[in-house]
Amino acid sequence: MAFEDIISKMKSAGRFDPRPTFSSSDLDEWEKDHNLKLSPAFREILTAGTYEIANFYFHPLKEIPEHPGYSVFARWNDDEFGFKSDGTDEGVFVLLKGEPPYRKFESFEDWFRSVAELTARTNNPD
After folding, report:
1. What gap in Å lies between CA 7 and CA 59, rounded to an integer?
2. Is 49 exposed, middle or buried (0-12, 13-18, 19+ CB in 10 A)?
3. What is the C-alpha separation between 93 and 23, in angstroms, rounded?
């Protein structure tokens, strides 16, 4: 996986905690309960540690009634991010209330890299 550089930058900036967001056994149980296989990038990133990213939070995997067939794994402001619960698509979808899900990223690793880069930017450079 090519996300190790992001983790190194977050460690240097003091934005990484080596206590994982999820344990491997948590993810194993979720996979078993939902009869699907999570992507290797998702497993590796979330079992590596916890990330401090402004207004962004990983939360326990869950299916939500507003978007049946999708499992939410994170929230950033009012946006929720998830993937297809049946494992038929490795893409990451944006899940907004009142709107159909749309596929925004090709993979979890692409999504993670984008979120890390966006939250590292200065909003008001002056």
Report:
1. 19
2. middle
3. 23
Residue 70 CA to residue 54 CA, distance in Å, equals 24
CA distances from 23 to 12, 26, 102 (A): 24, 5, 28
For each of the domains in the chain, give its residue range(s) and CATH number, in order of start.
Answer: 4-120 (3.40.1580.10)
pLDDT tens across the length of the chain (126 residues):
467 777 777 777 777 788 887 888 988 988 888 777 787 888 888 888 887 776 677 877 888 889 999 999 888 878 899 999 888 888 999 999 899 999 999 998 888 888 777 766 555 444
What pLDDT, on a 0 to 100 scale, did the predictor assign at position 1? 45
Indicate the burial class of 94 (C-beta count within 10 angstroms; 0-12, 13-18, 19 or more). middle
**C-beta neighbour count of 21 within 10 angstroms:** 20
**Which single residue is written with the structure tokens 């709107």?**
99
Residue 5 three-state SS:
helix
